[in-house]
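Submission sheet (multi-component)
Chains listed below:
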Amino acid sequence: MTQEGSQGLTQEGSQEAIHDRGFLISPGPHLWKGLSVSKIMYLVVLALLFPAGAGVYFFGYNALSVMGVSVGTAILTEYLCKRLRGQAFVMDGSAVVTGLLLALILPPTVSLWMVAIGSIFAIAIVKEAFGGLGHNIFNPALGGRAFMSVSFSMEMTTWVLPMGFGADAITSATPLSGTSVWQPFDPSVYQAMFLGNIGGCIGETSALLIIIGGVFLIARGIINWRIPAVYIGTVVLMALGLGEDPLFHILAGGLMLGAFFMATDYVTSPLTNRGKIIFSVALGVLTVLIRRFGGMPEGVCYSILFMNAITPLIDRYTKVRPYGLVKRAEGAG
Amino acid sequence: MSPLGYPCTWLKISGVNKLVIRLKKRGTPYGVKVPESKLSEGSPIEPAPLPEKVIIPLQQNIGAPCQALVKRGDRVLTGQKIGDSEKFVSAPVHATLSGEVTGTTVVVNPPTGALVEALVITSDGEDKWVELEAPKKPEALSVKEILERIREAGLVGLGGAAFPTHVKLSPPKDKKIDTVILNGCECEPYVTSDHRLMLEQGERVLSGLNIIKKVLSPEAVYVAIEDNKEDAIDHMEGLIASLGFEDFKIVPLKSKYPMGAEKTLIDMILGREVPIGGLPLDVGVVVHNVSTAKAIHDAIIDGKPLIERVVTVTGAVATPKNLLTRFGTSLRNLIEYCGGMDGKANKVILGGPMMGIAQFDLDFPVVKGTNSVLVTEGTPIREQDCISCGKCIEICPMRLMPTVLARYAKAGRYDECKEAYIDDCFECGACSYTCPANIPIVQYIKVAKKELAKRAASK
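Outcome: structure written.
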């Protein structure tokens, strides 16, 4: 500060720094909220443990091993990708989220080597090839799942009834598959679908536990309530419009998990609230259309992937109006 | 504090904007909740010991730098003008001690990073004052005389921006000022200098506000105070009643950062938006800080130039204090007077933790814009990639898209920054505070603004 002390912090300065005691110089603000990326990721993992727990309860060891392989492979793949690209590997929890999400949208009986391939694809291709966390266009878990659907279509559409630990698996149909004309179900079926005692993917069967996990994330301010609310709301309206059973649409398939945990993925959803609402309405419309008229039952998976691709466009057209903008236009005009 | 607490304050408020304020107060979705950490809230203002020497930078306002009026070897008296400028947007500087000008030096101007010349005055230990202008009642002075006195006293906005006060009080003829807001929000964590000033010298603050009112003759005068300073709200309310300033209306506002920012305040209280790149006077408003109002009182009523202010010295020091400090006193002197820094502390910030600037040298002097010296322990941050969570967009008080601005700035796409209304940003730092990826968003924005200014200047 005195002349001998003023130093390299100014662009002109070239003298040796004389810091009283090595003061830390950093730009403001000098406070941080402390909600880091990894904290967010682990909160999501915590919330996912609810549907994951339901999966283990209903599908036993199969579910556990699929989750273990998926998460383990995801972390390992991320580590190798970072090494190959010469970047530092940070255990930020995002690979755990991807691995766990992928496991939750797989049938419990799928072969473990297929799970590993799906997980590698999700991390290496869908996420890291685009630049890693924050740069991926598509939700990695859904990308991995879509890849597996195409590659192993047989295994990916074999469903079993819940058997818990030990019992033999009995093949069944998921409520959504094959039925082009949907009959109203009796209340006990709704109850089973709500609690999760039905055939289907590991983490998609229990709407109740997905909602618990999702509400936890909303309460902690991690996910934006608009996406699940508008998405599910649109599906209900669409179903009513097409003369179908809205409750069935909500409870069946991957809608709940997709609405709370995948459509809300920060990276692949729009930035602004307005964008998020447009995104969610489109998701709801696409999901019902794919379910009703498409050849495959995976309405949620493909509609989210499709809207992921549209997200940059939505961001472009849903900018927020800054403070003081209109006033200037008036003044200038 | 009234026995019924907060709602009582509400009942006392009158005026057409009551309902608006009330709705707004509840419903502001912007800004961030920050830990307040007002450690020195209960410490009465005490004078800091006079230092042996002071360093007086010749530029302590946002406008033009001053030319030195004295040279090495000259003897000066406390309060003597030692630097002035011909320019309208500038404010003179005064000697803050009596003694001898023993040299010149160069200091880094904290907000801009530019180097400015400074005079070093070594004290003779006597603190002999110049002959002050005769104390006068504001009624006896014309508006022109008041403005001249304010300029001569070297007044600048003491809230931090250091905008010359006489300029702010001289709006262009075509801009009618209908509202004056006195800003006692002090939304920066840790800082308590304005709070203590309102509690201990509230009558001077209000008298200063009355002078501002005389100059601008607005239709409405508001005193904005955050609701974490209930004692100040009550005290000021009592003073307003007892001193007969019935037309001053206290507006309690919810404590949320950055409530005390001019543009936020104007929106909160009046529902008006200052145009991008414009000034509050474009919407008929002038906002003054409580410390500035008190300094106006001192300049007009007592005829005293601005040579000292209350500085909160806080954070990781033995005893946080509110010190009435002569400009030019080194940070070292203040920190030592407060019992020194804690062992682990490694960061010294001029200002509050949100908008303050980290310093590298304890010899840096307190200047007019310094409301606080904060000692903290910091760790270097590690920036990650943006995960597009959109939290910065949700909380930006100017409703900008900070992450988008940072992205453009990082890529050197400054023109796109401008198109994304970068000029609207007043650098409160709420975005960086919130960012999970630890991106120094506001720093990128500052860099982009500087580049844009450079380009504009070279055109």
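Remark: The first strand of chain A starts at residue 159 and ends at 160.
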